[in-house]
Amino acid sequence: MQLRHYVELQEELAVNYCKLAVVSVDAPAVNDAFRAGLGAKFPFLSDQERKVVKLLDMTETSKSRGVTAMPYTFSLLPDLTIHNLYCGYWYVGRPMLDELRLDLREMMRKLRPDFEGPVG
């Protein structure tokens, strides 16, 4: 569901010189098929061996499923500094598109002195 929302947002992000990427623990072939099925133009990266999710301590261990990756969304500045972080362990913890738009607005204010328009 969340990825369908990101597909809705992808054209808007492109106009604003923003980029979107998804990282999952699925195999590259699964990611490619899922990406194509959604009509996503942004990259789907694979952390199949769970190296990154373990490094960032984004895992959960359960008796029934073993080690699983917890869903996080990061808003990153151009230097890859984290501007905002959303833990989507519960679906309602994942960012709404309007929250991402607000993050982008805040980041643009920090980065662009002309964000508010020409100074007269």
Question: How does this model look, in words?
Answer:
The protein is α+β, with helices and mostly antiparallel strands and 120 residues long. It has four helices and six strands. It has a two-stranded parallel sheet with strand order 1-2. Strands 3-4 form a two-stranded antiparallel sheet. Strands 5-6 form a two-stranded antiparallel ribbon.
Summary keywords:
120 residues, alpha+beta, Glutaredoxin, two-stranded parallel ribbon, two-stranded antiparallel sheet, 4 helices
Overview in brief:
This protein is α+β, with helices and mostly antiparallel strands.
Secondary structure elements and pairings:
Elements: H1 2-15, E1 22-24, H2 28-38, E2 44-46, H3 51-55, E3 59-62, E4 66-69, E5 72-76, E6 82-87, H4 97-111
Parallel strand pairs: 1-2
Antiparallel strand pairs: 3-4, 5-6
The CA-CA distance between the termini, in Å, is: 44 Å
Rg over CA atoms, rounded to whole Å, is: 16 Å
Q: Any idea of the CATH class?
A: Alpha Beta
- Helical residue percent? 25-40%
CATH architecture: 3-Layer(aba) Sandwich
- Structural class determined from secondary elements: alpha+beta
Instruction: Give a count of the beta strands, DSSP E runs of length 2 or more.
Output: 6
